[in-house]
Amino acid sequence: MMKINSVGMIGLGVLGSAIAPNILKSGVQLLVNDIDRDKVNSITNDNIIGIDSITELCKKSDIIITCLPSTNALESVVEEIAESISNPLVIEISTLSLKDKLRAKDRLKGSDIEMLDCPVSGNRIAALASELTAFCSGSEETFSKINFILQSFCRETHYVGEFGAGIKTKMCGNILNLVHNAVAAEAIVLAMKSGLDPELFHKTISGSFSSSRVFEIRGKLMVDDDYEREGMNFSTPMKDSKIIADHAIDMNCPIPLYQTAMQSYHTAIAHGLYGLDQSAVCKVMEKATNLDRKKIKNK
């Protein structure tokens, strides 16, 4: 039986920094590392230990979780892990291409290190509340041994098959995520243009057959006109769109609704909304329909 007393986490971006504190719920010691020392300092306390180097982190951790923003970051981190690790397992939760994941897996296998491909679905708001969903692939036996760690920051965890099935599941799911977000904005803007109270509309639709988790979480930000409370800014759908499009091309699979929905995101970025939560596509819809919320409230 794999004994896990300590977990090392590499990557404290928007998602990683929200996930890390929840790992403590599993009863393990948590060590963290990021290329940005300020991110490490912002999260460390009596229970979370900041570690300066990946080599040192590997020596002190029973398993490693990586949550990384790019191909270059994954390659760099995996190389350091392969050269310094003494523990046998890496759980890779980033959203990166299947080719990137397979390359990382093969590099670690050369050093007798196992990797699980385990991307997670959800944004920062969901991560803070331990409401992510994990799609884990690789060894099912290993998944069963480390699942209690995933459950500390996920509402649901699923074993989806051989290595790579996790990121395939995440890519397909992200199509729904992005389209649901854009459609939620369209519905809420039309409701306001129709003279409906947006808060009451959101409350009424939430939980109905027409609803989705995206509508309920991101739709609330749209109703509140509050996009500073970032769940995930526009950098994520932009990165993911390239991964998804390339995979769809490889599979000879058209994704026209997804590509159409992407136009709202490109427009939002062109309007300077890049740093806001991606639910800010609602602002683009409002401009397109010449909607003035202040006038609606004063009616």
List the defining traits of the structure above.
single chain; 299 residues; alpha/beta; Rossmann fold; N-(1-d-carboxylethyl)-l-norvaline Dehydrogenase, domain 2; 2 domains; 6-stranded parallel sheet; 3-stranded mixed sheet; 14 helices; 9 strands
Description:
The protein has helices at 16-23, 37-43, 54-60, 71-84, 98-109, 124-128, 140-150, 165-193, 198-205, 213-224, 235-250, 256-270, 281-288, 293-298; strands at residues 6-10, 29-33, 48-50, 63-66, 89-92, 114-117, 120-121, 132-137, 154-161. The mean pLDDT is 94. The chain is α/β, with parallel strands linked by helices and 299 residues long. Strands 3-2-1-4-5-6 form a six-stranded parallel β-sheet, sandwiched between helices. Helix 1 links the parallel strand 1 (6-10) and strand 2 (29-33). The chain has two domains: 6-163, Rossmann fold; 168-298, N-(1-d-carboxylethyl)-l-norvaline Dehydrogenase, domain 2 (Orthogonal Bundle), CATH 1.10.1040.10.
Sheet with the most strands, sense and barrel status: 6 strands, parallel
Instruction: State the CATH topology of the largest domain.
Output: Rossmann fold
Strand order of the largest sheet: 3-2-1-4-5-6
Distance between the termini: 66 Å
Structural class: alpha/beta
Topology at a glance:
Layout: E1 6-10, H1 16-23, E2 29-33, H2 37-43, E3 48-50, H3 54-60, E4 63-66, H4 71-84, E5 89-92, H5 98-109, E6 114-117, E7 120-121, H6 124-128, E8 132-137, H7 140-150, E9 154-161, H8 165-193, H9 198-205, H10 213-224, H11 235-250, H12 256-270, H13 281-288, H14 293-298
Parallel strand pairs: 1-2, 1-4, 2-3, 4-5, 5-6, 8-9
Antiparallel strand pairs: 7-8
Helix pairs in contact: 3-4, 4-5, 8-10, 8-11, 8-12, 8-13, 9-10, 12-13
